[in-house]
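lol ok so funny story. i was supposed to be doing the assay writeup but got distracted and ended up predicting the structure for this chain instead. priorities right. anyway since i did it might as well share w the group, maybe its usefull for someone
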Amino acid sequence: MSSTRNDTQHDNAARTPSDAGNWASSTGRLNVASTPTGALNINVNGRLLMSPIQGFGKMWQKTYRARLSGAQTTPVRVIQEWKANFPRFWPAGNRFYGPITGIAPGEVGLISMTLPGKTKLSTGVLVLYADDESFTLMTPQGHIFAGWITFRAFDDAGVTVAEAQVLMRANDPIYELALFLGGNAQEDRFWQHTLTQLAAHFGIKAIVETRSVCIDSGRQWRRAGNIWHNASIRTTIYMTTLPPRAVFRSMRNVATKRR
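and the output, tada:
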């Protein structure tokens, strides 16, 4: 009996990938345990994750790469600093509210972004994968795009290279139009700024190499209904109805006290 049990445990261990602990245990609906001060959780909790296959627009692979020439660092050290200071490297007007436990598999981060025209967008991401030299974030329903963003660092002929790579489709027709009208360029500037700031963190003035490849030029019209979860529209509605809702709550509280 003991021998059989040991053999079974050995077989199960052999079938378990060595990096299993680096992956999120669940990729279904997002669950936000607590909302940090200043963050909004109106388009994240309960939302499904969206792969590029489930998006609407053209599929793009975008790669942003910075060589940290002259920096006395390693890929592991770069990822450690990137995880610890992730929101600090973003452009002004954009906030990332990371989980208390840090960037770790299965954790959810909330995001507040400023779009062209000063439009606000409240969304979030799941940490799909994380190890010593890379981490991957996955987007939910309503985000600008359906896909993954992988951040990694590696050694290239003795030089540490930092890279962000996005595989994405616009989530719905409105986002696809926005990307066509300048959103793609803004996306490029966002990650170029991030990598420039990361390099500056290590005392390096880096030039960011950018490469965009259209993987699939087709649009998936059967996914046009994704617009129902459009986080930009929902955030705008939430913000514009906030004052009247506050007045209504105040009036209701006064009426309750008079009873």
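The first strand starts at residue 59 and ends at 67. The radius of gyration is 21 Å.
back to the writeup now i swear
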